[in-house]
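Box 4.2: Ligand-aware structure prediction
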Amino acid sequence: MSERELHADCSRCEALCCVAPAFAKSSDFAINKPAGTPCRNLSGNRCTIHERLDASGFHGCVVFDCFGAGQRLTQETFGGSDRSAKPEMLELLPIMRQLHELMWLLTEALRLDEAHSVHGKLRDALASIDHLAAGSPADLRALDLDAQRRRVNPLLQRASELARAGIKGRQDHRGAQLIGRKMRGADLRGASFRGALLIGADLRDADLRRADFTGADLRGADLRGADLTGVLFLTESQRRAAVTSSR
Ligand code: SF4
């Protein structure tokens, strides 16, 4: 499984994420759209407003990442099928996306030199999830995703602990409600923000080296000037949801 396959490649997908979800008109979506119907901005498999999603009121699309699930369903699970398979692809997109997200997290953990003692287990888990993702539509539908998460999460947490072990006084904000919290310039090296709600938090100029952001909600969090060197498990979609100097 190459790194490229754990990132969306819309050119190899049937635009599944532009059809499968329901949209509720909000700051993230400019329109209401029922689940399973094509977005009005779709032409064939291409988004006609791709270059101006934010300006057009579709920030929700900017921050979405399928981790390569869309192209795997299109090319592998349903490879060679005609378009009549599309309703089934839509149904399986959330399942494949969760499997690919776990694979992305495991791949990130394997980059951590300090976690070398668990690299063998991480590689085994990655191969096992990849094998599940290669199953038939019926196999995928029958999967117990919670059980897979329960199996993989302790390994990811162990890798994170090993990577942060050398940082004294690191803070633990796992699952914390930090909505709008002012932490500008704070020393948060090696902090755990696993599953934390950081919506609108002020993290400008904070020292976030080696902080763990697994599953943290960073919508509107201000990361301008923050040091994110060696940060753990921060996805591209989390970065796009936050305020950074590039946005
Ligand atoms: S706005 Fe573009 S990217 Fe978003 S759902 Fe519609 S077609 Fe897809």
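In the box above, the bound molecule is iron/sulfur cluster. Residues 3-164 form one domain.
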